[in-house]
Amino acid sequence: MSSVYTRPLARLIEQLQRLPGIGPKTAQRLALHLIKRPAADIQALAQALLEAKQQVGLCSICFHLSVEPVCEICASPQRDNHTLCVVADSRDVIAIEKTREYHGKYHVLGGLISPLEGITPEHLHIQPLVQRASQPHVQEVILAINPSIEGETTSLYVAQLLRPFVKVTRIAFGLPVGGDLDYADEMTLARALAGRREIEWQ
Description:
Blueprint: H1 7-17, H2 24-36, H3 39-55, E1 57-58, E2 65-66, H4 72-75, E3 80-87, H5 90-99, E4 104-108, H6 126-133, E5 140-143, H7 149-162, E6 167-170, H8 186-194, E7 197-198
Parallel strand pairs: 3-4, 3-5, 5-6
Antiparallel strand pairs: 1-2, 6-7
Helix pairs in contact: 1-2, 5-8
C-alpha cells in the first residue's frame, strides 16, 4: 500500500479497514473523501469520536450504552418492570426500540458464548441477569438472540439458568438462520416479538 499511497493516507486507509464492514475499496473511498473535507470538519469528526469514547459507558443495571450510570430505559417509570428482553448487543436494543412494540426493560449480555473464540459465560453479563430475573416482580424473560450457532448455545444456557424461577420465552424469528437482529426490518422484529413462545424442554 505504501508504494501507491503517501504514508499518512496509507495509515488512514489501514485504520478505516479495521472498522466492521469496511473493505479495502470502501476504506480507500472514505479516506480520499475525508482528506478533501475542510480541516474544521475533520476536527469535528475527531472530537466527536473522542467524546463518544470518553463519555459513553455501560448502564450499571442493563449494560446498554449510556452516558449516565443508569440508562434512560432503566430509569424510565413508564417502562414495564415485569418483563426483561435479553439481547447480545446494544445494536439489538436499538433495533427492537425502533419497532415501538416492546415496552419492558432490557439486559445486554455483551456478546455470545463462543468457545472457539474463547468467550465463556464468565465473559458475559449472565450472572447479573440471573440476579435481576430472580426478583419477584419479574414475570417473563424474552430471549431475543440471533439464531446462529453461538446464539442457540447462549439461549439454551441462559434459559436453563432462568427456568427455575421465571417464565422464559423466545421471539419467533422471521429471519434466516445466521441473520442479525440489527439488519431485520422493523415489521419483522415487531411480529417476532408478538409471536414469541415459551421455550420447550425435553
